[in-house]
Write a structure and sequence with these properties.
By secondary structure, this protein is α+β, with helices and mostly antiparallel strands. Helix content is 45%, strand content 16%. The chain is built from 16 helices and 14 strands. The strands form five sheets. A four-stranded antiparallel sheet has the order 11-12-13-14. The mean pLDDT is 94.
C-alpha cells in the first residue's frame, strides 16, 4: 500500500522547508534562502529581495547585493521554463546542464530560422556576431547592451516579425548567457531595475562553469526540488522544470523517488527518506512577493491556493503578491500611492490572524521605507490595491 501524505502535512512541510515558520536560524543569509528554495524567481528584480526579506525579516538590499555582486555566492541566470532565476553559484552548473543548455540549443535554432526568414543572415552570421560581441565584452571587462552594440553594430540589426520588430541585441546576449559564456552583473539603476551590466562568466566567477552530464544534472535538480517541494505530482515537476515527461520520469527513477497518495486522489513523489511526517509548525503568516518560489513551486495549487487564482494571477499564469497563513493563501497585497503595503483578505480569518497579517504588513511597509514596488506582472487584486488611497485593510 502506498504511503499517504495529506494536505495538512503538505502545508507543514511547506512552512518549515520554505523558511516561513519558526525563528530565523542564526547566521542565515541570502544564499541560504536561495538554497532552501532551490532557486529564487528573478524575472522581476524586486522578487529576489522581497522573497529573501520575507524569510529573514530584515531589510536586506545591501546584503542581497553583496551576495550577488561582491561575494558572488549568488548568480542571476536563465533556468527552468526559460525563466530568470537567482541560484547559489555552486548549484548553477546543475541548472545549466539540466535546463539551460537545452533552452540555448532550441533558441539558437529558432533564431537562425528567423534570421533567414528576415533576410538577415544564417548560422554563420550569428556565430560571427556572437564571437565579435564576446570579444568586445572581454576587451571592456564589463559593458551594457548599448555599449556592446556600439562595438558590434550588427547587434543593432532590426528583425521584423508580423507581431513587431526587435533588435538582434537582446537575442544574441540571451544566447551568450544561456550558453554560460556571459553573466548579468549589477543592475543599471536601483535594485528594482531589470537592466544589467554584462561580464564574461569566467572573469565574474573566477572560472568557467563546470559541465556535468545532463541526465545526472536532471537527477540532482529533482533531488533538490523533492527535498524542498515534495510531495509533488509528475505534472508539478514536469511544469516546474520545463522538461518532457520522459526526462521527468527518468529523473524520478534516478533518485529512487517514492510514490505516495495525496488528498483528492492524486499521486505524488517524495525522496526515499522523506515519507515520515513532520511536526506541525507554530501559527505563521507571510506577505510574499509576486512570483515568489513558494507560490510558483507547483502547477497543482488547489491545496494552498483554494479558489483565489482569478484575483492573484494574471492571464498568463504569473502570480502576484500574496498573503499566507499556516500554509495557505488568504489574500494579497500591493503598494498604494500613499506608500506602504496595503492588504486585502479574500476570506474570513480569526482575529489573531488578522492581527498577525497587520503586523507583517507594518514590517514590510517599514522595510520598503517609501519605495513603491510595482510587480512586472499585474494581477487584479494588486492593481486594485495599487490605486487604493491608503494602506489600511
Amino acid at each position: 500500500m502506498k504511503p499517504h501524505i495529506d494536505t495538512a502535512q503538505r502545508r507543514a512541510r511547506l512552512a518549515w522547508r520554505h523558511g516561513l515558520a519558526g525563528p530565523v536560524t542564526a547566521g542565515h543569509g541570502p544564499a541560504d534562502v536561495a538554497t532552501g528554495l532551490v532557486a529564487l524567481h528573478a524575472t522581476d528584480a524586486a522578487t529576489v529581495h522581497l522573497s529573501i526579506a520575507a524569510r529573514l525579516h530584515t531589510p536586506l538590499v545591501e546584503g542581497v547585493e553583496h551576495a550577488l555582486y561582491q561575494d558572488r555566492t549568488l548568480l542571476r541566470m536563465l533556468g527552468m521554463r526559460r525563466t530568470m532565476f537567482v541560484v547559489p553559484v555552486g548549484f548553477a552548473p546543475v541548472v545549466q546542464a539540466a535546463a539551460t543548455r537545452a533552452i540555448a540549443a532550441a533558441q539558437r535554432q529558432l533564431l537562425v530560422k528567423q534570421l533567414r526568414e528576415c533576410g538577415v543572415g544564417d548560422a554563420d552570421w550569428l556565430a560571427e556576431v556572437e564571437a565579435s560581441t564576446y570579444a568586445a565584452l572581454v576587451a571592456r571587462g564589463s559593458a551594457t547592451a548599448a555599449q556592446l552594440a556600439a562595438d558590434e553594430p550588427r547587434l543593432r540589426t532590426e528583425l521584423a516579425f508580423p507581431q513587431g520588430s526587435q533588435y538582434a541585441t537582446s537575442r544574441v546576449l540571451f544566447l551568450l548567457s544561456a550558453d554560460g559564456r556571459i553573466v548579468r552583473g549589477r543592475p543599471v539603476g536601483s535594485w528594482l531595475s531589470s537592466q544589467y551590466v554584462w561580464s564574461p562568466a569566467a572573469a565574474w566567477l573566477g572560472a568557467d562553469l563546470p559541465e556535468p552530464d545532463p541526465a545526472a544534472a536532471r537527477a540532482e535538480l529533482v533531488r533538490a526540488w523533492l527535498a524542498r517541494y515534495g510531495p509533488g505530482t509528475l505534472a508539478d515537476l514536469k511544469w516546474w522544470t520545463g522538461w518532457t515527461v520522459t526526462h521527468t520520469r527518468a529523473a524520478l527513477r534516478a533518485v529512487e523517488a517514492v510514490e505516495v497518495t495525496l488528498d483528492g486522489g492524486d499521486s505524488g513523489w517524495v525522496l526515499p527518506d522523506d515519507v515520515d511526517p513532520v511536526e506541525a509548525p507554530p501559527p505563521w503568516v507571510a506577505l510574499l512577493p509576486g512570483l515568489d518560489p513558494t507560490m510558483m513551486g507547483w502547477v497543482s495549487r488547489e491545496w494552498y491556493l483554494g479558489e483565489h487564482a482569478p484575483e492573484l494571477f494574471d492571464r498568463t499564469g504569473n502570480a502576484g503578491p500574496t498573503v499566507w497563513s499556516d500554509g495557505r493563501v488568504i489574500g494579497g497585497w500591493g503598494c498604494p500611492p500613499a506608500g506602504g503595503a496595503a492588504v486585502e483578505l479574500l476570506e474570513d480569518v480569526p482575529a489573531p490572524v488578522r492581527a498577525a497579517v497587520a503586523a507583517a504588513a507594518g514590517e514590510l511597509s517599514g522595510w520598503l521605507d517609501g519605495v513603491r514596488v510595482t510587480p512586472r506582472f499585474r494581477t487584479p487584486l494588486e492593481k486594485r490595491l495599487a490605486g487604493a488611497p491608503s494602506a489600511a485593510f
